[in-house]
Amino acid sequence: MLSLFRKFKDGLAKTVAVITQKTHALFGGRKIDAASLDELEEALYTADFGVATTTEILEEIKRAHQQDRELRGQDAAAIGAAVLRRVLAGSEGRFEGAPRSRDESANPEVICLIGVNGSGKTTTAAKLAWMLKEDGRSVTVAACDTFRAAAIEQLRTWTERLGLELVASQMGADAAAVAFDAWQAAKARGRDYVIIDTAGRLHTKSNLMEELAKIRRVLQKHDPAAPQHSWLVIDGSLGSNSIEQARVFHKSFGLTGLVVTKLDGTSRGGAIVGIWRELKLPIYFVGLGEQAEDLQRFSVDNYVKAVFGLEG
Amino acid sequence: MFESLTERLGQALRNLRGVGKLTEENMAETLKEVRTALLSADVHFKVAREFVERVQTQAVGQDVLKSVTPGQQIVKIIHDELVKLLGEGATELTAKRPLKVLLVGLHGSGKTTSTAKLGRLLKKRGYKPFLVGCDVQRPAAIDQLEILARQEELGFYADRVSKDVPAIGAAALKIALEQGADAVLFDTAGRLQIDHDLIEEVRRLSARIVPDEVFLVADGALGQEAVNVAKAFHEALALTGLVLTKLDGDARGGAALSIKAITGVPIKFIGIGEKSADFDTFYPDRLASRILGMGDVVSLVERAQETIDQDQAEKMAEKFRKADFNLEDFLAQLQQVKKLGSMESILGMMPGMSGVKIDDGAEKQMGRTEAIIKSMTLQERRNPSLLNGTRRMRIANGAGVKVVDVNQLLKQFQQMQKMMRMMKGNGTKKLMRQMEAMRGKGGFPGM
Lengths: 312, 447
Fold this sequence. Notes:
The complex is a heterodimer. In chain A, 50% of the residues lie in helices and 13% in strands. The N and C termini of chain A lie close together (11 Å). Chain A has twelve helices and eight strands. An eight-stranded mixed β-sheet of chain A has the order 3-2-4-1-5-6-7-8, sandwiched between helices. Chain A has helices spanning 2-11, 13-23, 34-45, 50-67, 73-88, 121-134, 151-162, 175-188, 206-222, 241-253, 271-279, 300-308; strands at residues 109-114, 139-144, 165-167, 193-198, 229-235, 257-261, 283-287, 295-297. The longest helix of chain B has 39 residues, at 403-441. Chain B is α/β, with parallel strands linked by helices. In chain B, strands 3-2-4-1-5-6-7-8 form an eight-stranded mixed β-sheet, sandwiched between helices. In chain B, helix 1 runs antiparallel to helix 2, helix 3 (45-59) crosses helix 4 (70-87) and helix 18 (389-399) crosses helix 19 (403-441). The interface between A and B is large, with 54 and 53 residues.
């Protein structure tokens, strides 16, 4: 757990640096005044928390400040952290870690990764497969992005590098057919998981959303319970549109959770707070870098601490 | 979720009714709402603040014009200021030949796709473009560019062994010029603006090839971080333009305003779709309307063109003209509309409608109508006058609705027919003129 926190903090280190730099005086021992409240507002907005969450945190700090004019920066940070923890309560996705003993006839569990273009689905598919493999599970990866040029090659390079099993067809093939075959192969070989990498699609394209529905329909011919997990991969550097993306994907495909990528930059990924507020979709993993091991379980505590520059 | 600015302003503007002059006092609440609207569209905090101050300076002291409401006047000021801010500076490409373009950006922003799209556009403008794959980081990025180059029949070079990006760039440039290319486009790896090593790498590449244009490729949905990203890339590489991608989604694109305001780098191109042709020069007024949530009539028209079957649309227009429009046609049209996307997303593109919440009701209603028509025989669809009581009962049972619902639909349909007969005269022309006028104006919403 400690090492995990370290990684999380390393990943968000620049974030912490930026936010503490900006708000060093703010979250330090100095007394809060109008100017620092202003700075605090800026810090919260620039973290993409959006209007609702920012207002909520600010109001609470202002209220505390009215009651106690001696309120200091660190107290404000603690209040902010408490509000954020409260807002995010229950948002940690639980994905069982223990290797399961399964009988031969059991169906593989299907994880479907969907999202807009460039959100990091292919990379996440590879990282996730590697993580499960490291955990002692057997995984089949299905290259269902048959649309983007060289998406299959990208996934193939990853799987070869990490020694993972891949089921792929060629560019332009029917994505649902690849998913169907991958499931069948995984079942025949007794695999625990099938990870499905899908093509990026903007949530506003209804015909592409229809293709996703087809993948689901086809999988359900094998197993009515599939896909057990439908995770939306969200780019952590995006702003409020992430909420719109999540809303539409959830409505048309029925999501079970989120994976937030690219949190190793200076973005705070505050939009996930908005998504959680509205859709209550748990966040399973966060992407903190380009290496296979840079996929970490999401922890509210670590996230909040990193955002407010608090020590573990 | 996204309320239009107009709607946001609704409450605040009530206080402005009947004022003769805009003052700091009577505009305070309105301006606060403007700020919130900008922040919700992902405009950077500081940019939003400065922008509101600009609007305030513009507006204070102005007499309220007789012909418009104070609200319309303020929205107009805001819109004009936005257009001014977004559109300042050159947006045309440098006229140099050979033209060297370097494309940089974060991961997944759309550099490779944009490189190919830009290549296609330049080819159409008479250049001989040549694409260079300098992304040695992402697996198969080079393959992706090569496939796209082949599709568009553009020159291509990459080195799959070397990791020395500046050297690859220099070698590629030489080869491109030898082959007679006069537009050389360099696709680079996605990198974080704080990744010193990779920023250094692209700086050295830039020093070797000396590009005429350096484009930052940025996702149109980028959040507040856009400013830091653009600033860092600008400092390292002296950007000359911005390519804004994925604008075929419904992101407000406020990040573009932030980038323009803070770095002064003009927006040159926008990516608006999956296909290579979906790449366009940038229009400040379209983006201004979008940021403000004033709807995007142009996008709606484009989406309609994208999805609606042209032949069928013409046939339908013919039927309209002749006022011979039966339930079968009605069903076909219903299905076309459904293809456009959800009612909410269609409405979102209409001026002044982007905040309108559609509950499932409207969509369900459409589904129900479809079911009713589908429960009719072909003969009944073509000749609704056949529908007597027993037939209506049968249809209601088939569609799982009540007879009243069937009756209601038929009544609506009759009204439609009546209207069409009315239009058959010279009414059509008037209607067409109205539609033309709407399109021409670029849709400035009435409040």
